[in-house]
Protein backbone atom coordinates (compact mmCIF):
# COMPACT_ATOMS: atom_id res chain seq x y z
CA UNK A 1 0.00 0.00 0.00
CA UNK A 2 1.49 3.28 -0.99
CA UNK A 3 2.16 5.87 1.66
CA UNK A 4 0.25 9.05 1.48
CA UNK A 5 1.64 12.26 2.67
CA UNK A 6 -0.45 14.94 4.22
CA UNK A 7 -1.28 17.73 1.82
CA UNK A 8 0.30 21.09 2.55
CA UNK A 9 -1.85 24.13 2.76
CA UNK A 10 -0.65 26.26 -0.12
CA UNK A 11 -2.86 29.19 0.64
CA UNK A 12 -0.64 30.52 3.45
CA UNK A 13 2.82 31.57 2.39
CA UNK A 14 5.70 30.57 4.63
CA UNK A 15 7.67 33.77 3.97
CA UNK A 16 6.64 37.23 2.92
CA UNK A 17 7.06 37.95 -0.78
CA UNK A 18 10.05 40.18 -1.56
CA UNK A 19 9.28 43.86 -1.92
CA UNK A 20 10.15 45.36 -5.25
CA UNK A 21 13.40 47.36 -5.09
CA UNK A 22 13.06 51.12 -4.89
CA UNK A 23 14.99 53.31 -7.27
CA UNK A 24 18.25 54.66 -5.86
CA UNK A 25 18.86 58.37 -5.76
CA UNK A 26 21.69 59.90 -7.74
CA UNK A 27 23.76 60.36 -4.60
CA UNK A 28 23.35 56.70 -3.63
CA UNK A 29 24.31 55.53 -7.11
CA UNK A 30 27.38 57.82 -7.05
CA UNK A 31 28.46 56.31 -3.71
CA UNK A 32 28.23 52.81 -5.19
CA UNK A 33 30.11 53.82 -8.34
CA UNK A 34 32.79 55.53 -6.25
CA UNK A 35 33.22 52.39 -4.14
CA UNK A 36 33.41 50.18 -7.23
CA UNK A 37 35.98 52.46 -8.88
CA UNK A 38 38.08 52.54 -5.72
CA UNK A 39 38.17 48.74 -5.69
CA UNK A 40 39.12 48.65 -9.38
CA UNK A 41 41.88 51.23 -8.90
CA UNK A 42 43.27 49.31 -5.93
CA UNK A 43 43.29 46.13 -8.00
CA UNK A 44 45.03 47.94 -10.87
CA UNK A 45 47.64 49.33 -8.49
CA UNK A 46 48.42 45.86 -7.14
CA UNK A 47 48.53 44.42 -10.67
CA UNK A 48 50.95 47.14 -11.77
CA UNK A 49 53.23 46.50 -8.80
CA UNK A 50 53.18 42.75 -9.47
CA UNK A 51 53.80 43.18 -13.21
CA UNK A 52 56.73 45.58 -12.70
CA UNK A 53 58.35 43.98 -9.65
CA UNK A 54 60.80 42.00 -11.79
CA UNK A 55 62.16 45.09 -13.58
CA UNK A 56 65.52 46.02 -12.14
CA UNK A 57 66.03 49.78 -11.89
CA UNK A 58 69.05 51.73 -10.83
CA UNK A 59 68.88 55.12 -9.16
CA UNK A 60 69.73 58.02 -11.43
CA UNK A 61 73.04 59.68 -10.63
CA UNK A 62 72.34 63.41 -10.92
CA UNK A 63 75.97 64.39 -10.45
CA UNK A 64 76.54 63.88 -14.19
CA UNK A 65 73.70 66.20 -15.17
CA UNK A 66 74.94 69.65 -16.15
CA UNK A 67 73.19 72.52 -14.43
CA UNK A 68 72.86 76.05 -15.68
CA UNK A 69 71.79 79.14 -13.83
CA UNK A 70 68.12 79.89 -14.21
CA UNK A 71 67.58 83.11 -16.08
CA UNK A 72 64.31 84.69 -16.92
CA UNK A 73 64.17 85.70 -20.56
CA UNK A 74 63.69 89.41 -21.04
CA UNK A 75 60.79 90.46 -23.18
CA UNK A 76 62.03 92.44 -26.11
CA UNK A 77 59.87 94.72 -28.21
CA UNK A 78 58.51 93.11 -31.36
CA UNK A 79 61.02 93.02 -34.18
CA UNK A 80 58.76 94.63 -36.73
CA UNK A 81 56.56 97.33 -35.21
CA UNK A 82 53.41 98.26 -37.04
CA UNK A 83 53.97 101.09 -39.52
CA UNK A 84 50.73 102.93 -38.74
CA UNK A 85 50.54 105.18 -35.66
CA UNK A 86 47.44 103.73 -33.94
CA UNK A 87 48.53 100.13 -34.54
CA UNK A 88 52.01 100.98 -33.23
CA UNK A 89 50.46 102.63 -30.15
CA UNK A 90 48.37 99.54 -29.39
CA UNK A 91 51.39 97.32 -29.97
CA UNK A 92 53.50 99.41 -27.55
CA UNK A 93 50.68 99.29 -24.97
CA UNK A 94 50.55 95.51 -25.34
CA UNK A 95 54.31 95.27 -24.84
CA UNK A 96 54.13 97.57 -21.80
CA UNK A 97 51.55 95.29 -20.19
CA UNK A 98 53.70 92.25 -20.97
CA UNK A 99 56.78 93.75 -19.35
CA UNK A 100 55.28 95.98 -16.65
CA UNK A 101 52.26 93.93 -15.66
CA UNK A 102 48.51 94.21 -15.98
CA UNK A 103 46.14 95.32 -13.24
CA UNK A 104 42.47 95.83 -12.63
CA UNK A 105 40.63 98.50 -10.67
CA UNK A 106 43.20 101.28 -11.23
CA UNK A 107 45.08 102.99 -14.05
CA UNK A 108 48.34 102.10 -12.30
CA UNK A 109 48.66 99.92 -9.20
CA UNK A 110 51.29 100.21 -6.45
CA UNK A 111 53.63 97.83 -8.33
CA UNK A 112 53.49 99.88 -11.53
CA UNK A 113 51.21 97.51 -13.42
CA UNK A 114 48.67 99.19 -15.68
CA UNK A 115 45.20 98.53 -17.00
CA UNK A 116 44.39 98.63 -20.72
CA UNK A 117 43.46 102.30 -20.60
CA UNK A 118 46.51 103.18 -18.49
CA UNK A 119 48.86 101.45 -20.93
CA UNK A 120 47.35 103.23 -23.93
CA UNK A 121 47.39 106.56 -22.07
CA UNK A 122 51.09 106.34 -21.15
CA UNK A 123 52.14 105.06 -24.58
CA UNK A 124 50.27 107.86 -26.39
CA UNK A 125 52.81 110.24 -24.79
CA UNK A 126 50.38 113.11 -24.44
CA UNK A 127 48.85 112.89 -27.92
CA UNK A 128 45.13 113.02 -27.07
CA UNK A 129 44.06 112.37 -30.66
CA UNK A 130 46.22 109.25 -30.93
CA UNK A 131 45.01 108.04 -27.53
CA UNK A 132 41.33 108.47 -28.42
CA UNK A 133 41.76 106.72 -31.79
CA UNK A 134 43.57 103.84 -30.06
CA UNK A 135 40.77 103.50 -27.50
CA UNK A 136 38.19 103.67 -30.29
CA UNK A 137 39.82 100.81 -32.22
CA UNK A 138 40.19 98.79 -29.01
CA UNK A 139 36.48 99.26 -28.23
CA UNK A 140 35.61 98.19 -31.76
CA UNK A 141 37.68 95.00 -31.38
CA UNK A 142 36.10 94.30 -27.98
CA UNK A 143 32.56 94.83 -29.24
CA UNK A 144 33.18 92.56 -32.23
CA UNK A 145 34.02 89.74 -29.84
CA UNK A 146 31.88 90.47 -26.76
CA UNK A 147 28.95 92.56 -27.99
CA UNK A 148 27.93 95.64 -26.02
CA UNK A 149 30.59 96.85 -23.59
CA UNK A 150 30.34 100.24 -21.88
CA UNK A 151 34.00 101.25 -21.81
CA UNK A 152 37.58 100.00 -21.91
CA UNK A 153 37.96 100.31 -18.11
CA UNK A 154 34.76 98.34 -17.46
CA UNK A 155 35.91 95.64 -19.87
CA UNK A 156 39.34 95.54 -18.22
CA UNK A 157 37.87 95.34 -14.72
CA UNK A 158 35.59 92.47 -15.76
CA UNK A 159 38.49 90.00 -15.74
CA UNK A 160 40.59 88.49 -12.98
CA UNK A 161 43.44 87.49 -15.32
CA UNK A 162 45.15 89.38 -18.12
CA UNK A 163 44.86 86.76 -20.87
CA UNK A 164 41.68 88.03 -22.57
CA UNK A 165 42.32 91.78 -22.17
CA UNK A 166 45.84 91.30 -23.54
CA UNK A 167 44.49 89.27 -26.46
CA UNK A 168 41.98 92.00 -27.25
CA UNK A 169 44.73 94.63 -27.22
CA UNK A 170 46.75 92.51 -29.65
CA UNK A 171 43.72 92.01 -31.89
CA UNK A 172 43.02 95.75 -31.81
CA UNK A 173 46.58 96.40 -33.02
CA UNK A 174 45.99 94.01 -35.93
CA UNK A 175 42.67 95.70 -36.67
CA UNK A 176 44.26 99.17 -36.66
CA UNK A 177 47.00 97.97 -38.99
CA UNK A 178 44.40 96.45 -41.34
CA UNK A 179 42.56 99.78 -41.37
CA UNK A 180 45.85 101.65 -41.92
CA UNK A 181 45.27 103.73 -38.80
Structure explained in plain terms:
Helix content is about 50%, strand content about 0%. It has about 180 residues and is mainly alpha-helical. Helix 2 (about 85-100) runs antiparallel to helix 6 (about 165-180) and helix 3 (about 115-125) packs antiparallel against helix 4. The model has no long low-confidence stretch (mean pLDDT about 85).
Protein topology:
Blueprint: H1 26-52, H2 85-100, H3 116-123, H4 128-146, H5 152-157, H6 163-178
Give the beta-strand count.
0
Number of distinct helices:
6
Strand content: under 5%
Structural class: mainly alpha
How much is the radius of gyration in Å? 35 Å
Order of helices and strands: HHHHHH
Largest sheet: none
Q: Give the distance, in angstroms, between the N- and C-terminal Cα atoms.
A: 120 Å
The portion of residues assigned to helices is 40-55%
Dominant shape = elongated
Average pLDDT reading: 85
- Low-pLDDT residue intervals, each spanning 5 or more residues: none
